[in-house]
User: Fold this.
Amino acid sequence: MGIIVDERETEGAPDGGWGWIVLLGGFVITGFSYAFPKAISVYFKELMQDFGCGYSDTAWISSIILAMLYGSGPVCSIMVNKFGCRPVMLVGGLLASGGMISASFTTNIIQLYLTAGVITGLGLALNFQPSLIMLGSYFDKRRPLANGLAAAGSPVFLSVLSPLGQMLLNRYGWRGGFLITGGLLLNCCTCAAVMRPLKRKERKAIACSQELKEMLPLEAGQEKIICENNNDKKKLLDFSVLCNRGLIIYIIAKFIVVLGLFVPTILLVNYAKDQGVPAHDAAFLLSIIGFVDIFARPTCGILAGLNWIRPKTSYFFSLALIFNGLTDVCSATSTDYKGLVIFCVFFGLSYGMVGALQFEVLMGIVGTSSFSSALGLVLLFEAVAVLIGPPSAGYLVDKYKNYELIFYMAGGELITAGIFLALASFCFINQKKHKDLPQKHNSDVVINPKR
Assistant:
């Protein structure tokens, strides 16, 4: 079974039942995938001392993990279409764990890039994307809520992994911390085991009902279904989704977003330590972001599911981006611990909104049937941005010894992306919709303009 498990028609989504177990698995996978690249930053000071490197060098570790998480999207789409979600996720869990265990034995920063960066990042990628696809298969009407709850895994794990990492660092050193973390990542394999695909019979029945509605002869209808299934198998990655104008706008906006979205969290702990904040308190700043984020994501998911907001989710997403950018800009001059705590509260709120809405907006643009290919392509473009953002910020700190610049840089990029997405959606998408009227209204489609 492949990504097609989803979805010739979304009415087959049970919106509950075993879907809640799938949601729990997605919660854990999302937690590891998004929180781990940030939580690993608690080890950066010690890595800089042991390997004699700077901020930019250590920032590459998180960037490579995130780049693999994003850049492996097309490869992951192909593998899932060919082998199915569960086998791909099992392999991913083993890679993620093996990468961190190997990283505990490294002797230079390059080896750390290959193990903790490339191998662990690839393992997380092979878990993250299939978990989203399975979540979209099991939920339709409750999908905004499901996405919000699954996205809450990121702040929950960030709240735990950051102080846990500092504790492991103090007791066992960074090598022992990496080794234990590798063991924790084996839980990804457990999550993979619960990703049970929907039965193929259900989808065939739906396809047959469509053929009957078209009043085709039974034999011809059967032949058409077989032909469609064969075509689906051949299309391991559907590039035709790039003809969707809404998707192009989304890709451009997300590219700008990713340039600055992760910069504050990756460099925050080092910044606080340089300001004289004790190591434990500095690590706790990420936990504050996580605690606020825990409530922000499900709440935002519930709001996005309201009938009067769901058709305008793209504008809601734009508002979240601008909010996050303003938080960075307004907090650029914060140097004392109290100011950093206030920044973390507002950043956690705005960051949670962004995290809860980003994939819901993408599903609304392309629909669930094209989501797998669209997600793979979007992540590929974002991989380029994530390789540029954090290392560039680290370079600015190394050169100018001024953290204020990175907050202005990250905030400006988020604000730009939010304004661009809102204006582009209004000017290019809404006009296209008006021209295409009359058409059947679908409240789930936020922007779906196919040329």
Observations:
- Residues 11-199+236-434 form a domain with the Growth Hormone; Chain: A; fold (CATH 1.20.1250.20).
- The two ends are 30 Å apart (CA to CA).
- Residues 159 and 287 are 4 Å apart (CA to CA).
- DSSP finds 18 helices and no strands in the chain.
